[in-house]
Amino acid sequence: MTKYENDSTVEFSKRLAAALERKNGGNQSDLARNVNCTPQAVNKWLAGSQFPRDRILRVVADYLGVTPEYLKFGTPNEPPPPPPPKFFLMYLQADEAEFITHVRELSETGRKQLRASLINAEKLPPEALPHKANGTH
After folding, report:
1. Residue 15 and residue 66: Cα distance in Å, rounded?
2. What pLDDT sits at residue 132?
3. What is the pLDDT, as a whole number, of residue 90?
4. Residue 65 φ/ψ region, left for φ over 0, alpha for ψ in the -120 to 50 degree band, beta for the rest
5. Mean pLDDT, residues 37-56
6. What span, in angstroms and rounded, lies between the C-alpha atoms of 57 and 64?
């Protein structure tokens, strides 16, 4: 491998990691599952030791919402990540949308803890739950 190939592979891995972070927080397993490859292959791409083949590169780029050219060459015409679906959020109050945003940003452990708390709260009798009065809890 020449120095040029090594540099381009490293730059590819940086662009891939950034696009993956925007897409799903950097989850390599999701990428491997969605593009039908092994987690080891994704790991090699991100380590800068290997390029995906062109067919897989197109699938990876499509999954990440970027162009194959951007991933491979760093062309400046990278499309922005897709916006969150507004059709759902437009029916929510601002504080509800903010709550959903915070839930999405939780770690997997945080989401599990929240889910467990909600399930347990659902089992409590109504009189055991805090009441909403004058906009406070």
Report:
1. 10
2. 59
3. 58
4. left
5. 92
6. 10
Report the candidate in 39, 57, 47, 42 with the shortest Cα–Cα distance to residue 13.
Answer: 47
Residue 137 CB burial class (10 angstroms; 0-12, 13-18, ≥19): exposed
12 contacts: CB under 8 Å, gap ≥ 6: 45, 48, 51, 71, 72
pTM, whole model, 2 decimals?
0.53
How far, rounded to the nearest angstrom, does the alpha carbon of residue 19 sit from its chain's CA centroid? 9
Cβ of 20: how many Cβ atoms within 10 Å?
Answer: 21
Look up residue 65 and give its two tokens: 């919402």
Least confident piece of the model among 21-25, 105-109, 119-123: 119-123
